[in-house]
C-alpha cells in the first residue's frame, strides 16, 4: 500500500472531471492533477449523451427564454440566481468547447444547426448528430493528452473519502475537512492513500439503482454515497428523472435511448390503439417537460396493461432523419424495426438525478477542500425536474467555477499541512466464493426501486421499500466488513446508501413537484 500526494485529486473522467482538470492544468502548469476513474477513461454517462448541450446561440432566442424554460421545467424549485448564471455563461462554454476542438453539426449556411427538445421554447441545442456525448468525451480526452501535468488513472476505484473521521482528533461536523481518498488500484488489488489540497467528486449519476435505466453500469452513485458517509449534505434525492423514450427491449440493460431530439424533430407518441395520447394531456404534447410525458406514458401503461407505447416517425423526412439520428436509425434497423414504416416501441427508464451533493455557486460542498461537480452534485439549477440538455451545460459552467477557485488558491490547504493519515485498515480478508450473493442483492435493490420508488410513489410503497432496504443494508454491511474489498461489493454498498437516501427524502416530501409524484400528496 502506498501514499501518493498531488495538488488536485479528481474522481471521475466524464465531462465534469475532465473539464476541471483541463482548465486547471492549462492555467496552472506547476500544479499536478490526478484523475482517478473506476473503468476505462472514456466510460461515463457523458459518452452516451445524445441530444446535445443547451445554450442561447440564435439571435431570435434570449437568455430570458432559456431561464424561463428552465424554471418551468424545474417546477419553480430551481434557484433563480443559479439558473441565470448558468444560462448566461452557456455561450462562452460552447465557444470554449469549439476552441478545444469539439465538432457541432452545421446547416447548409454553415451556421450551427440548433435542435429542439421537450420544455424548450426555441431551437437551442448544439449537437453532433445523435452522438454528442461521444464527440465531447473524445474532445476532452484529446485535450488531457496535451497537458503533461494531468495524469489519468483508469481502473482506480475510489472507496472512501479521507476526512477528520480518519484521524484521532475529533471535530464538529461543520468544521470537517477532506484530505484525499482511499483508492483501490484494480490492477494491483491494493488500496492506496491519495492526499491532495483540493478534492473533486465528479462521479456521475445513480441510474443503476433502478432495474431499467439509460445509464451505463458505472452509474452507481459512488460519489454521493462517499460524500454521505463523509457527512456532506445530500439533498433533493427524491427527484429522479425518468426519460420517456428508452427503446423497449426486455432483458437488455442498460436501455438504449431514443433521444428527445427525435420528438423535437416531429415524432409522435402513440398507444397500441394508435391514439396520440399526449394531445389530451398538455398543450405542448410530446414536447412537454419529461416528468409530464413520462407520467402520461405510465398512466397509459397502467390502464391498458401494455408493456410499452410507440414512437411514430413514419411521417418524417427519412433522408433528414437518418442524417440527424444515424445511431438511433442503425440501432432500430439492427433489431428489424424500420422507422420509415414501423413504430418504435418505447418505455420510460431512469435517466438522471436532480438531487445529490449540495454545493454552493462555486461548487463547494459542506465539507472543507471538497468540491462536487456534474450529476453527483446538486447546484440548484434543475429544481424538481431537469430541462433537457441542461446537464452537460451545468457540468461545464460549474467546472469553470471550481477551476477558478483552485487556480486562484481560494480553497487551499498546503500539502505540508495535511495531518498524519492512517493507511487503509483492511480488516476483511474473505474472498466471496460466490459472487451471486452480491449480484443477487444488487438486482434486489434495483427491483425494489423500480417496483416501489419509481415514477409514481405512495406512503405504503415507500414504507415497504424502506423495510426491504434496511434488511439489505444489514446484510451488505456484514459482507462488506468481512470481505476483501472489490468494486462489486463497494458498488452494492453505495447503491444501498443511494436507494435509502431516495426513499428517506421521498418520505419527507409532502407536495408533488416536478419528477416527484406520490398518490398520497393531494
Ligand atoms: P459521468 O459522465 O457519468 O462521469 C462519471 C465518472 O466517474 C465516470 O468516469 C465513472 O467511471 C467515474 N466514477 C464513478 N464512480 C467512481 C469511483 N468510485 N471511483 C472512481 N471513479 C468513479 N445530458 C445532456 O445535457 N444532454 C444530453 O444529450 C444527454 N443525453 C444523455 C443520454 C444518456 C443515454 C444518458 C445516460 C445521459 C444523458 N445526459 C444528457 C445526461 C448527461 O450525460 C450526464 O448528466 C453527464 O454526462 C454527467 O457527467 P458527469 O461528468 O457528472 O458524470
Ligand atoms: C436525449 O437526447 O433525449 C437526452 C437529453 C438529456 O438527457 O438532456
Question: How would you characterize the overall build of this protein?
Answer:
By secondary structure, this protein is an alpha/beta fold. The protein folds into three domains: 3-53 and 131-238 and 354-417, FAD/NAD(P)-binding domain (3-Layer(bba) Sandwich), CATH 3.50.50; 246-348, Alpha-Beta Complex (Flavocytochrome C3, Chain A, domain 1), CATH 3.90.700.10; 436-508, Fumarate reductase/succinate dehydrogenase flavoprotein-like, C-terminal domain (Methane Monooxygenase Hydroxylase, Chain G, domain 1, Up-down Bundle), CATH 1.20.58.100. Helices cover 35% and strands 16% of the residues. The chain has helices at residues 15-27, 63-73, 80-99, 132-145, 222-229, 260-264, 290-304, 318-324, 326-334, 391-407, 436-452, 459-482, 487-508; strands at residues 3-11, 33-36, 53-54, 114-115, 125-126, 150-153, 156-163, 178-185, 190-201, 234-235, 240-247, 268-270, 309-312, 344-353, 356-358, 370-372, 377-378. Strands 1, 2, 6, 7, 8, 9 and 16 form a seven-stranded mixed beta sheet that branches. Strands 11-14-13-12 form a four-stranded antiparallel beta sheet, with helices on one face. Helix 2 packs across helix 3, helix 8 packs across helix 9 (326-334) and helix 12 packs antiparallel against helix 13 (487-508). The longest helix has 24 residues, at 459-482. The radius of gyration is 22 Å and the shape is globular. The termini are far apart. The model has no long low-confidence stretch (mean pLDDT 95). The chain binds flavin-adenine dinucleotide and succinic acid. Residues 50-51, 259-261, 352, 388-389, 391 line the site of succinic acid. Succinic acid binds next to helix 6.
